Amino acid sequence: MKVLLVGNYEADGQRSMERFGKMLLEGLREEGIEVEMVRPKVVVGGGNKWLGYVDKFVLFWVVIWLAGRGKDVVHILDQGNGVYASRRRTCVLNAHDLLAIRKARGEFAGEKTRFSGRILQWMILGGLRRAGAIVSVSEATREDVRRLIGESEMIPNAVEDFWKPVEGEKGDYLLHVGGGPWYKNRAGVVRVFIEVRTRTRHAPRLVMVGPELDETLTGELKEAGLEGEVTVLTDVTDERLRELYSGARVLIFPSLAEGFGWPILEAQACGCPVVTTAREPMRTTGGEAAVYAEPGEWTKGVIEVLEMSEGRRAALVAAGIENAKRYSVKEFARAYAAFYRRHARR
After folding, report:
1. CA gap 193, 182 in Å, rounded
2. Residues of the chain with CATH 3.40.50.2000
3. Rounded distance between C-alpha atoms, residue 157 and residue 96, angstroms
């Protein structure tokens, strides 16, 4: 069987999607699948968003057409590249989440998408509807796909063996890992931190991995006298992130929505307790090994972990490590290989 994987534009720097593609590429080769990956390269785009669209949506079509000849399956790895989808049954597409599409449709109160963004998401949705088959990475995403597009298969993401407890930065700190989109709820993280500092005798600092905080959140910290207690790390290697997970008292992950929730598993695999939102897909990803709280109750969950006895904390850490083992790369690759074989025979 010959499979072509279609990855993400190099200049976009989407590390999670790059890792997903690398993990699948290597896993499929271990399963004996003949697999190749192509991705749009920077030709005219440079640092310009609009010229980057030329690289992605004009020049790359030729690359896909040439590389796809003779392949049994063409697998587009990210729904954001749904515009590449053809009506061929051998074209399959991953749906990690449909949050951008849902936002463009006005499904999230107070969240707006520009006109150009709505056009792009309409094109992506059209590509998803053209694809021969869709793979959803969680049941939560599968429900969104069912409602907006149709049926899909569900194959959960995996977490690499790389994520494991290591010696690194030790100290009394809380950790958050997440980018700038609204659903990552960085405002919620900052407000939980402020509440923790006022409601418990424990006084950990906060480390946030992601973009710099906006003026509103910086102002809230300054007003609370905690501006110097928050460290924002904007460019963190996986090795450094593993150290941070391994040394943190707790990962605060109060997302309002997710496609899968990878940081939950990464943290658990590194021996870091997790406090996250009591909704899907976080509940399924974290299993019985995370502390769940409804929106507005995250502070209570964080304090619960901070005040745990050594025995309870050790049990939670051990359960997290075991939960992460359920998401092995080997089983992940086998599931995709079986999916390709079923789909190619149709």
Report:
1. 18
2. 2-158+328-345, 173-325
3. 9
**pTM (2 decimals)?**
0.93
For residues 213 and 154, give the distance between their C-alpha atoms in angstroms, rounded to a whole number.
Answer: 35
Residue type for position 173: Y
Helix (H) or strand (E) holding 206: strand 205-209
> What is the DSSP code (8-state) at residue 18?
H
Fold of the 2-158+328-345 domain: Rossmann fold (3.40.50)
Helix (H/G/I), strand (E/B), else coil: 104: helix
pLDDT of residue 346: 52
d(CA 127, CA 86): 7
Phi, psi of 32 (to 5 degrees): 85, 15
- At 212, which amino acid appears? E
Total residue length of the chain: 346
Q: What is the pLDDT of residues 131-181, one digit of tens each?
A: 999 999 999 999 999 999 999 999 999 999 999 999 866 678 999 999 989
Which ranges in 81-235 belong to alpha helices (H)? Answer: 99-104, 115-130, 139-148, 186-199, 215-223
For residue 281, cis peptide bond before it (omega within 30 degrees of 0): yes
Instruction: Residue 262: name the closest of 2, 20, 1 by CA.
Output: 20
CATH topology for 173-325 is Rossmann fold (3.40.50)
